[in-house]
Structure formats: C-alpha cells, structure tokens
Amino acid sequence: IQINKMQDEIDFVFDATKEDMDRAISHLEKAMVKIRAGRANPSMLEGVMVEYYGAATPLSQVSNVNTPDARTISIQPWEKQLITEIEKAIMNAGLGFNPMNNGDSVIISVPPLTEERRRDLAKLAKSESENAKVGVRAARKTAMDELKKLGNDGLSEELRKDLESDIQKMTDDYITKCDALYAKKEKDIMTV
C-alpha cells in the first residue's frame, strides 16, 4: 500500500509539473501571437474592447475581423451604429493604428515596420520567451522540492535522483520549446 501511495505522489508531481510547464508555453504562444510581425493579422486586435450596450465587449464578438491582404485589416460590425465605437476602441487600445471607415466597415492600413520597430518587437519577443523560461524553471523548482519531501517520507535516494534527472530532462525540453518559439517569431519579425 505504501509503495502505491508513493507512486501516486510521484505521478502527481510529474503531472503537476508538466501542467505548469504547458501553461508557460501556452502563455508564451499567446504572447507571441500578439506581437506584430509586419503582416496584418486579426489577432493584432485581440485585446480591443468595444463599448456595446454599456458593456466592454471583445471586438471579435461584435464584428467579423479579417485580412483581405497583407497590409489591411477589415472589421465588419454586425450593427452599423457600432462603427464609431469600434474606431474609438482601436484608437484607445494604443496599437498605433489609424482606423478609417467607409460607412459599412472599419479599415485599418497596417504600416510596414521600421528597422528600429522590428528590433524593439524582437526584444519584446525575447523578453516573453525569458518570462516563459522563468515559469518553466519555477515548475522545476517546485517539483524538486516535492521530490525532496518524498525523500524525507521514504523515497530512496537513488530513485529520487533518477526522478530529479527526469524532471531536469523535461525542463530542458520545455526550455528548447521556448527558444524555438522565440526563434520562429524573431525570423517572422525580421523578415521584410
């Protein structure tokens, strides 16, 4: 019975660690999507909230957002009277876009990125990647602490060292994922 309980605790440590590391990667992927890479993308407007019947509502819930070409984002509101609200929300979002409307929809012309802006965005991507790595390492530390506690509860030193080595391998894999996501985003940003 004691061995099964110990195995359950070990499984729990590994599952929780993997979950925490997955969460760090998932957060990094979302952050990378929001970092602009020159081409128009509906996700650039993901954080924009529109005043809709007195409630702040995500832009995607009051309109269709699409990209007819690489430099244009088109927003087709479901209700015509929302056009000025949408324009105002985009201006207030601080994205550096200048929306225009043609009476039916809001059009955003996405300006090409300057070299300096590209470098700034690459730095931002690097910073997001480093934050994710901090999350991965925090999950590793928690797991190592838990394994130490299990060592005090009777887990053999040899097995603990093996498990710590497995946790370290998992950590290395996740750090590699962070680096790969950053490298891909940096290439996207720096490609003119």
Architecture blueprint of SSEs:
Layout lengths: L1 H33 L14 E4 L2 E4 L4 E7 L2 E6 L5 H10 L7 E2 L4 E4 L5 H38 L4 H34 L2
Antiparallel strand pairs: 1-2, 3-4, 4-6, 5-6
Helix pairs in contact: 1-3, 1-4, 3-4
Report on this structure.
By secondary structure, the chain is α+β, with helices and mostly antiparallel strands. 60% of the residues lie in helices and 14% in strands. A four-stranded antiparallel sheet has the order 3-4-6-5, covered by helices on one side. Strands 1-2 form a two-stranded antiparallel ribbon. The protein is elongated. The N and C termini lie far apart (62 Å). The relative contact order is 0.17. The model has no long low-confidence stretch (mean pLDDT 89).
- Rg (C-alpha, Å): 23 Å
Helix-and-strand structural type: alpha+beta
Number of helices: 4
Strand order of the biggest β-sheet: 3-4-6-5
| Strand runs, count | 6
Short description:
This protein has 192 residues and is an alpha+beta fold. It is 60% helix and 14% strand.
List the keywords.
192 residues; alpha+beta; four-stranded antiparallel β-sheet; two-stranded antiparallel sheet; 6 strands; 14% strand
